[in-house]
Amino acid sequence: GENVEQHPSTLSVQEGDSAVIKCTYSDSASNYFPWYKQELGKRPQLIIDIRSNVGEKKDQRIAVTLNKTAKHFSLHITETQPEDSAVYFCAASSNQAGTALIFGKGTTLSVSS
Amino acid sequence: GAGVSQSPRYKVAKRGQDVALRCDPISGHVSLFWYQQALGQGPEFLTYFQNEAQLDKSGLPSDRFFAERPEGSVSTLKIQRTQQEDSAVYLCASSSGLGASSYEQYFGPGTRLTVT
Lengths: 113, 116
Known about the structure:
The structure holds 2 protein chains of 2 kinds. Chain A is mostly beta strands. Chain A is 0% helix and 58% strand. Chain A has strands at residues 4-7, 10-14, 19-25, 30-38, 45-51, 56-59, 62-67, 72-77, 86-94, 102-103, 107-112. In chain A, the strands form 2 sheets. In chain A, strands 2, 4, 5, 9, 10 and 11 form a 6-stranded mixed β-sheet that branches. In chain A, strand 7 and strand 8 form a beta hairpin. In chain A, 35% of the residues are buried. By secondary structure, chain B is mostly beta strands. Chain B has strands spanning 5-7, 10-13, 19-24, 31-37, 44-50, 53-56, 65-68, 75-79, 88-95, 106-107, 111-115. In chain B, strands 2, 4, 5, 6, 9, 10 and 11 form a 7-stranded mixed β-sheet that branches. The interface between A and B is medium-sized, with 23 and 28 residues.
């Protein structure tokens, strides 16, 4: 089955710096890759996703890139702000609606002002 | 609009007790998922419903775990004879199951279960 590895497990940056979180997956059938942000005690929130027919997607300060050949995808946050501090999870699933998401172990991002 | 809701938000059970966790998905969402999130880990899949049909229960850790969605909307996850290793946050997610947005899963706030 699918296995998703996520790095780093913790990331500390200064406000205004960029942050990059990387994930690799094992199943070549996976073609949907969402990213979730989870604040302490809160629900995971979908912040951006990408499908395998595109290599990059951007939404304001966040962007995701996908390399299907290498089976890895990354989250890029520019101009980080203290409110970006949270745990970020990447996930992967195959190309059918209703397929379970397989999550990475998460990255704790701390943005200091 | 209303998102996914779950109740109770917190549940403390003595070892051996049965518990029932409720999920109200986004109205009209066809797909409903249950995940288990241990402390410091990512969510792990438990089971999936399409309307009232349970199409995948491969993630349920034992036969003490049972889920249902009898009318294709509200779902209940039941854990019988709870054990300490069942302590976790139980998350429910729903997706429309239709069209281009069919993949997007929206999560509820979770139920934190503590077994003492």
